[in-house]
Design goal:
single chain, mainly alpha, 80% helix
Length: 194
Amino acid sequence: HELGHLDNFHITKRIESINNLKTFSQIGNLSLIASSIFSNSSENLIQSMVLNQVGVQNYYASFTKEQEREADIYAVQTLNKLNLSAKPLKKFLRILENKSIKKGINQDSYKFSTHPIYEERYEIIDNFSNNNNRKITDNFKFIQAKLFGFTEENELNLNDYLENDYYIYANSIFLSRKGKLKESLIMINKLIEK
């Protein structure tokens, strides 16, 4: 996602956009000052300048939301090129959504956010992802399980990151490292039979 911002030149566009909006805002303010002088009304000037600034900020925010959509699409397309499933990305967004809900952030709050609402982000993932990456995802998960099995010092931590066959594989490696070879062999043999 973040690489998508770089690859799509969003930072450069953002700088250009800020400069353009500053110019737009300044021209708008000059016009408002001139009309205030001619109409001899300072109250209209203050209200109009506030509305002008809000309009500029709203324009900038909607442009940024589009960049976030492009970055999401870029992330999914990159996963497709790497033949990786987008399911973990969706799972990660669900974790973020649940944490947001616990903090009291609801769907209405995202109207003012630069990121699209979660439902829209899920749709982007569903619409742009290849869903036939199961074999590669399985291989990746077994590599991940192997890494956890060799690096974790506490068996309980395996449960936090792995489940099902991947947990069994990691746990068999963990047990063999701890000298519990018989338990390890029983687990790995059942997994091989499966």
